[in-house]
Design a protein that fits this description.
single chain; about 400 residues; alpha/beta; Dehydroquinate synthase-like, alpha domain; 8 strands; about 10% strand
Length: about 400
């Protein structure tokens, strides 16, 4: 298979401790800034003070309270504030959820009339987004340097991804020291989310992409080594390696010109919308069972993954693939993330309701071959322990 692609990665990355102090050099002095954040951890860890010092010469309006799964109605309240304050620049400070919200907000704020959700789904006649930037405090999604935002709309029972290249952040500041105050659960989620991002772009078809495949394998090796270490050691090296790997996992590079899957993510989004499950934990619950269900199509890359990343020695592809899935499942367990419905106390999953979510979102069929329909989704969830 011949690769044909256009790669756009215009986000400027400022990586390293102390880079928040460079913020003023990235935002023009004439910009009116809306500072968007989540639950308030930036107030406790000193990040907020550093930002306000760096932007002392700017007009800054603040909006907090962005949820871990950013809610459309919350972002729309921020859009009203942005219009009232004549904001010209959106600065998202936090993890992927806040940065997703910032990108969506940058598109929604200039939309004067109609429903911004429906307008953006339609993708036509949209005004130019406001420019945005990101300060990352929780590595996981790569949202700080890609054009996708994932937004929940509880009133409609949906959680959907929105992609708009013009919404990609102008810059992203990645200061690994901001991770020091994060609770263990957020670190676990961040590593697992990054791992699944790589696997969704890598475990597809064995195409002619040695650079992308090799880079994916390197990223996985880093995450599998340093992810568990991040949980137990207070080291700059662990924070730096995980933060950088998570960024590279979803900035467009490893997916350029190769088939991509994303079925685990779409099913996971449905589980989060229906049950409030942490995003990363919805992914770990689905992915091993999806791999086994899709074994005939994925066996070649699963075997390669097992040999090159996990070092399995089996010559038979199916045996190597089975071991690769088992090792992945074990890694998720080591990161304290579920691999079956029974691992989440009180969780009862209805495959029919998940399928309904996917149908209402217009996402079926799923997969790199568009061959995962309603029946396959039900089978994957039943293998994970969902009720019949």
């Amino acid at each position: 298979m011949t690769m044909t692609f256009t790669l756009e990665t215009p986000t400027r990355i400022l990586f390293g401790e102390g880079m928040i102090d460079e913020l003023a050099s990235q935002i023009g002095p004439e910009e009116r800034v809306l500072l968007l954040y989540g639950g308030g951890s930036i107030m406790r860890n000193g990040v907020h003070d550093r930002i306000r010092q760096a932007l002392a010469g700017h007009v800054v309006t603040e909006f907090g309270g962005i949820e871990p799964n950013p809610e459309y109605e919350t972002v729309m309240r921020a859009a009203v504030l942005a219009r009232e304050e004549k904001v010209t620049f959106i600065l998202g400070v936090g993890g992927g959820s806040v940065i997703d919200a910032a990108k969506f907000l940058s598109c929604a704020a200039p939309i004067g009339g109609g429903d911004a959700w429906d307008r953006m789904l339609g993708g036509r006649d949209l005004p130019e987004p406001l420019p945005s930037g990101a300060i990352l405090t929780l590595p996981a999604t790569g949202s700080e340097s890609n054009p996708v935002s994932v937004i929940s709309r509880t009133a409609r029972g949906l959680k959907l991804p929105f992609k708009r290249e013009a919404a990609r952040p102008r810059f992203a500041i990645l200061d690994p020291s901001t991770m020091k105050s994060l609770p263990r659960r957020q670190l676990e989620n961040g590593v697992v989310d990054a791992v699944t991002h790589v696997l969704e772009q890598y475990l597809t078809l064995p195409v002619n992409a040695p650079v992308q495949h090799g880079y994916s394998e390197a990223l996985l090796a880093v995450l599998f080594e340093w992810g568990p270490r991040l949980l137990v050691e207070d080291s700059d090296e662990a924070r730096e390696n995980v933060m950088w790997a998570a960024n590279q996992a979803l900035n467009g590079l490893i997916g350029a010109g190769v088939p991509q899957d994303w079925s685990t993510h779409m099913i996971g989004h449905a589980l989060t919308a229906l049950h409030g499950l942490d995003h990363a934990r919805s992914l770990s619950l689905v992915m091993p069972h999806l791999m086994r269900n899709r074994m005939p199509n994925k066996v070649a890359m699963l075997a390669r993954y097992g040999r090159r990343v996990w070092g399995v020695a089996e010559a038979d592809d199916r045996a190597a693939a089975d071991l690769a899935i088992a090792r992945t499942e074990d890694f998720f367990r080591r990161m304290n993330c579920p691999v079956a419905v029974r691992d989440v106390p009180g969780l009862a999953v209805s495959p029919d309701k998940v399928v309904q979510h996917l149908e209402e979102a217009g996402q079926l069929p799923l997969g790199e071959n568009a061959d995962i329909g309603a029946a396959e989704v039900r089978a994957i969830l039943k293998a994970a322990g969902a009720a019949a």
